[in-house]
Specification:
about 150 residues; mainly alpha; 3-stranded antiparallel beta sheet; 4 helices; elongated
């Protein structure tokens, strides 16, 4: 037996209101989010803010004094990119539930977001690095002939 139209509309409106409240909560949380990541050589810590913007750079333990300008620049870029990627993935995970179809209202089918187009292809790659370090051996180290040993 099919449900009366009024009942279905009531359910849809209740789900819409709940979704609007959840989106507002998520937006508030995202506005205050930030992620910090260490470069693999542990010389630099970069922090990305809620829109992926760089909000902080720290040079740790005076390691920068023994680095060439190219090495320091590479460490900064590595840490900044990793922090931004963490923020992008956080946004993607936080917003994904709002694109899913409704279980209560079959007419609300959800929609697809092209995360790759929004954030770039790296956001969809496996996140096997759950620590503050970033990639194990960054490409710039290979180019400099450094084996990544401390």
């Amino acid at each position: 037996m099919t449900e009366p139209m009024e009942k279905r509309l009531e359910k849809a409106m209740a789900e819409l209101q709940a979704a609007q409240e959840a989106v507002a909560r998520t937006e508030r949380e995202l506005r205050s989010a930030s992620f910090s990541v260490l470069s693999s050589d542990r010389a630099v810590r970069a922090t990305a803010g809620p829109q992926g913007e760089l909000t902080g750079i720290e040079f740790l333990e005076n390691k920068y004094r023994d680095m060439s300008p190219q090495e320091l620049a590479a460490s900064v870029l590595e840490a900044a990119s990793a922090a931004r990627l963490k923020m992008n993935r956080h946004v993607m995970k936080a917003m994904a539930p709002f694109a899913e179809p409704s279980s209560d209202v079959p007419e609300l089918k959800g929609f697809e977001l092209d995360w790759e187009r929004i954030f770039g292809p790296e956001v969809l790659r496996e996140d096997d690095e759950d620590t503050d370090r970033g990639p194990a051996t960054p490409a710039w180290r290979d180019a400099l002939g450094d084996e990544g040993e401390d």
